[in-house]
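Researcher: I'm preparing a figure for a lab meeting and need a structural model of a single chain. I don't have an experimental structure, so a prediction will have to do for now. The sequence is pasted below. Please return the structure as tokens so I can convert it later.
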Amino acid sequence: MSSELPTRGRKEHAMSKASELQPNRAVGAKTPIGRLDLLERGGLILLLGIVIVIFSFLRPDTFATAANWRSIATSQPVLAVAALALIVPLIAGRFDISVGANLALCAIVTAAAMSYHNLPLGVAMILGVGTGAFVGLINGYIVAFLGVNSIIGTLGIATILGGIVNGYTGGIPISDKLSPLLTDISIQSVGGVPVLFIIMVIVGALTWFLLTQTPYGRYLSAVGANIESARLTGIRVDWVVLRSFVIAGALAGIAGILQIGSQGNAGPSLIGVTFILPALAAAFLGATTWSPGRYSVQGTIIALFFLGTTVSGLELVGTQPWVTDVFNGAAVVLAIAMSAQLRRRRTGTAEIGR
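Model: Understood. Here is the structure written out token by token.
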């Protein structure tokens, strides 16, 4: 019977099948949110509050100040958009390891367009985002149509992009003749709220709308929940996966442009794993809060600001720089482990990154 359903009906059926992958409950039973569920959903927010209280007590003159909150709000938006880029393929069970290198390439393309070719800011930004989307298209084709494992495929692309960026720049950041409209964005605010933070909220809202309020977002979730069920019910799995990488690439392009505004130049230093580690940790740690077992925009941003606030506190109490690296690395490992277990509970498999 399912093969006779219209295409749209079959896709809707796939999404209903995906919802059936939740833990079984008696028919007609209510599903109240108990204390344990509330703790699981809001545990990271509670932990963030505890971290704020502790560091405010330890360093009241430096941590609990408007200047520090502004610094955190200004430093995290780039990583937040990069983390949003990561979760789009993750929802479909794929992993885009090239987001950091793609971000760096897009920043270089945008800066070079202004500095070396005297192009206006708007055109340079279009080129930057377009470059990111094109890299995402390559990633998506390799993974969805050639059947390459997403981790291996995007790792190879990341290595290629790193070589291109280093070869083009010679290791020297591009900073001349950049538009002040972009380079001054890190010191601008609206009503006391940093412009970078406002842009992050806008990008986050648009990403949330795409992932939760559109048919494509539902198809993406269906593919991630049960790829065979999604395929049998009419969803073009390959195209859904390909588009997820294109969207991730475009978001990486936006993050690259924001990075120019954040630091005033574009350089190859962004390629390093250290830069993207907090975004990786936030993507997985975000799946343990708000909607446990699911990657979400809200959870990802909460997780990133938890990490950023903790790192800020550690720096202000005088810890050595290596402590931050250890913290970010441990957060990635712990977050992936927790996310995998929650994914197992929701879908029956802990596999990430087909």
